Amino acid sequence: MNANFIVNDYILIWTLLFGTSISETIYKLKQKIWENYKNEYNEIFKDKDEIVKDYKNFIPDDDLIYNIVMENKDYEKIKKQTEKYRIEIIKLWDKKKKETENLIKNILRKKLPKYTIFVVSEELNVINHNEEDKLIVGKQIEKMEPLKILVDINFSIAKNHIKRYKGEYEQIKKAILELAVQNEYATRVIGRSCYQDGNPDLLPLKRWLYPYWLMYLGIPKEEFPTYMMRDKIVFEADKYIYEPELKKMDIEEFIEFCIRNQRYIIRKLRTEKKQEVEVL
Known about the structure:
The protein contains 13 helices and 4 strands. With 280 residues, it is of the alpha/beta class.
């Protein structure tokens, strides 16, 4: 997947003004602007969607607030730090470009558009969408595992391009997307099993889906024990009928398969768990 990482003054300023205050000086600047230009401050809240939609041609109705921030010395420092942060993300992205392409081709099996990624201060701790092919990213790069930022970015992109469901169906979708990006893709990128990562509330559901997930990935049944050891997820492989058609599906088709068969899948796993307890 192609991505264009940019730093845009208007988006950066907007996130500084309406996001978490990243320093005492920024907090005081926001307070000062609010006290003196309350109406103007409120008015620019609506600007973000317009900026994201057409950032190259965006012109504010009133640039007073933007100019005040741009002329501030602390903003100059923040922008320089953000530019440096952008370069770090690009280096990581380029380093793992092949793995990301494999995520699209071999795991999600869906075409995704070229993304514009607005880079803001990493201190803001944000990753969010406004448009179908645009993302705002400002999240610290972990020292121990810097490549996790790629997982976070691609997870947000994947969530945005898979259709929404209601209730328990949405939970199944979330669990499968975690398996795809936060678990399998992360495992390939980081170089260790990441199958225990993600939302703890989804872990039981992911364990139920895991045997079918391996089939979706095209893992031969005789290799299941190797993957169970790698990912620390155990199930009785002999009790599962191998479903070869799963490896021909894309991620949305697999979600639909799991939704259609959820009662059987969950009942089967609950039966196995009960048997394990009785043996113990």
